[in-house]
Amino acid sequence: MSTDAAIRDYLATGALPALPADHFIAGAWAAPTANARMETFDPGLGKPFHEFAAGNEEDVDRAVMSADGAQDGWGRTKAGARGAILMRAAALLREEAARFAFVESLDSGKPLQEAEGDVAGAARAFEYYAGAADKIEGDTFPIGDAYLGYSHPEPVGVTAHIIPWNFPISTAARGIAPALAAGCTVVAKPAETTPLTMLMLGDLLHRAGLPEGVCNVVTGTGPAAGAPLVAHPRVRHITFTGSVPTGQGVMQAASRNVASVILELGGKSPLIVLKDADLDAAADGVIGAIYENAGQVCSAGSRLIVERAAHDALLDKVIARVKALKIGHGLRRSTLGPLNSEPHLQRVAAKVAAAKARGLSPVIGGAAAVDPETGAGWFFEPTIFDDVALDDLVVQDEIFGPVLAVQIAEDVEDAARLANGTDYALVAGIYTRDFAAAHRLARDVDAGQVYINEYFAGGIEVPFGGNRQSGFGREKGLAAVHNYLRVKSVAAKIG
C-alpha cells in the first residue's frame, strides 16, 4: 500500500496495523513483566490509536543486564565491523523511511514533511557515525627515548538514552549512533507519548546485524521506567534531552553511581535581525525558527530581537507569513501541526493567558484551536507578542509552543545585551549583510551554536549543545563520539 493510501485508510479508520507493542530486549520483543499497558495518542485527533508496554523497574533491569552482558563482545568487535552494521542500518532506514515518517508524524503530531526530514536526518546520523567508528584513535606521548607512552580510547560501557517526545527518531539517532560507533551498548527509554519509532529503530538495528543485547528499548512513564534506568548501577553514561528540572534529577541520580551525563535542556533562543538584513529571508527564518513542530523545539527561535529601524517592516512580513500557515492534522501535510499532548496544550494556553492577564496583547493568535476539517485535536494558534520587556515571563520562560516574543534593540550592542538576558544559552540566530557584525555577535552572544543567515543551519557534522540552564556536553559531530569513550593512558619503561 502506498503512503498516501495508508494515510487515507488511517484517517478513515483510526487504525494502523503492525505497530510494536512490547519492549525490545536482547534482540527480541519482550512483554512487560507486570502485563501493564498504556495508550499512545494521535495529537491531531486527540484520540488514542495504539497500546504499548508500560514498563517498570524489573523491565529496566532486564534491559540493562542484557546490555551489560553484551558490552564486552560489542566493545571488542572490530571498529570497521561496527561501522558496517551502522551503515546497513542507515540503508535500511532509508528503505523504510516512508513507514517511519508516517508513524513519527502520527505519534508526535508533527507535519508529515517534517517527519520525513527527521527520518532522513536519522539515516544520515547512522551513516556519519558508521564512518567515524574506525577513526577512533589514541595518542602517543613524548616522555623520552627510554619510555613508550600512549593512550587507548575505550567504550565507557552501558549507556542510557532518555529520548524526548518532540524529535523522537532524530534525537535517538544522534545519541545512539555515536554510542554504538564507540563500542558502547544502549538502553533507550522513549517518551511515554511517542514510543513507537524508537521501538521500530531497535528492531531495525537488530535486523541490520546488531548483536543481541547491544540496543534495548524499554517503554513506560518517566517515574516508572526512566527513573530506575538513570539510577541503575550498571549504567555508566546517560544522554538526556528534556526539561531543566528533570535534567537536574538525572544529574543527581547519576552522581550516586558516578556516571557521566550529557544534558540537552531547554532554550529561549534569540533570533537577531539587524537593520541591514534581507528582511524577506529573515522573515522566512523567523517562521521556521518558531513554528516548526508547532514551536516544540528546544532550539526554537522563540525570541525575535530586531533593530528598531527594521522592526515595523519585518513584523509586517512575519505576520503575513503567519496568516498563511495552515493548521491541520500532520498526515495532511499541514504547515502547523498540533501540540503533542492535551496536558502540554493546557500548559501553553496557561502561559499565554497569564501574559494577557499581565496586560500583554498578542498581535496575532493567542488561543487554543482545532483542526478545521475535523473540529478535533490539540492545536494552538501561531502567536506573536510584540515589544515585550526583557523581564517579562514571555521572554524569560520557555513556553515550548508556537509563541514568539518580539524584543526591540537600539543597536548591535543592545541586541547582544538582550540576547544574553535569559538563563538559557542553547542557540542563537543572526540575520545581517554585515559579516563583521555577525561574527562579533557570534562571539559575544552566549550560545552553544550560532546560525548566521539561516536558522537551523548545519547538520549532523556540527556539534550541538547548550550552556548555563540549557545544559552541557555536545552531541552531533565528532565531539559526540568522545562522550562515549574513556581514555586509558599507558607509560612503559623500555630502555
Structure description:
- With 495 residues, the protein is of the alpha/beta class.
- It folds into two domains: 3-265 and 474-488, 3-Layer(aba) Sandwich (Aldehyde Dehydrogenase, Chain A, domain 1), CATH 3.40.605; 270-460, Aldehyde Dehydrogenase, Chain A, domain 2 (3-Layer(aba) Sandwich), CATH 3.40.309.
- The protein has 16 helices and 23 strands.
- The protein has helices at residues 3-13, 57-75, 79-95, 97-108, 112-132, 168-181, 196-207, 222-230, 244-257, 279-291, 308-324, 342-357, 393-396, 412-419, 435-444, 479-482; strands spanning 23-25, 28-30, 37-42, 47-53, 140-141, 147-155, 158-163, 185-190, 215-217, 235-241, 260-264, 270-273, 303-307, 368-369, 379-380, 383-385, 403-409, 424-425, 427-431, 449-452, 467-468, 471-472, 485-493.
- A six-stranded mixed beta sheet has the order 9-8-7-10-11-22, with helices on both faces. Strands 16-17-13-12-19-20 form a six-stranded parallel beta sheet, with helices on both faces.
- β1 and β2 (28-30) form a beta hairpin.
- α2 (57-75) packs parallel to α8, α3 (79-95) crosses α7 and α4 packs across α5.
- The longest helix is centred in the first third of the chain and has 21 residues, at 112-132.
- It is globular.
- The protein starts with a helix and ends with a strand.
- The mean pLDDT is 97.
